[in-house]
Design goal:
Layout: E1 3-8, E2 13-19, H1 26-35, E3 40-44, H2 55-67, E4 71-75, H3 79-88, E5 91-93, H4 96-101, H5 107-138, H6 141-151
Parallel strand pairs: 2-3, 3-4, 4-5
Antiparallel strand pairs: 1-2
Length: 152
């Protein structure tokens, strides 16, 4: 395992570089992430590695980094891996120097945005149900019986 630690002067954060070997599997990479004690973890994925973990595996690696209090970043040119990372909220960089200088995504913010949308849809649904209930209670008794029969 080849790992290096860089220190980002721009944001005063240590970055752990993990060179992923072609023979590494998701468990090995996750163990390396768990042993890391830096605020940023940068996985360098070789071009020859065609079996890098899918979206679920990348999500597992991101979760391991988050549990250690770190942000996960990738250096790769593989389009499929970039798309997975984009969907999950993991930063992707073309080089180590770009990773040092650029700001990294915060995956927890992406989760909170997703939960915010879910909360808004629940609030809208609740207000629609409340409107229907009010309309039923205001209606004359005969209409109430007919409408309640249609709803049930």
């Amino acid at each position: 395992m080849v790992a290096a630690i860089l220190y980002n002067l721009y944001e005063s954060m240590k970055t752990m570089l993990i060179n992923v070997d072609v023979s590494d599997d998701i468990i090995t990479i996750r163990d390396r992430i768990n042993w890391s004690n830096s605020q940023r973890i940068l996985l360098i994925i070789p071009r020859k590695m065609k079996n890098f973990p899918d979206e679920m595996g990348l999500n597992l690696l991101n979760r391991a980094a988050t549990q250690n209090g770190a942000k996960l970043g990738l250096i790769t040119r593989q389009r499929r891996v970039k798309e997975f990372a984009e969907h999950i909220g993991v930063s992707v960089f073309p080089s180590i120097t770009q990773a040092e200088r650029a700001s990294w995504r915060d995956p927890s913010k992406k989760e909170s945005e997703k939960n915010k949308h879910d909360l808004n849809s629940i609030i809208n649904l609740r207000s629609e149900i409340t409107r229907e209930t009010v309309a039923l209670s205001v209606a004359p008794p005969v209409k109430r019986v007919l409408l309640s029969g249609l709803i049930i």
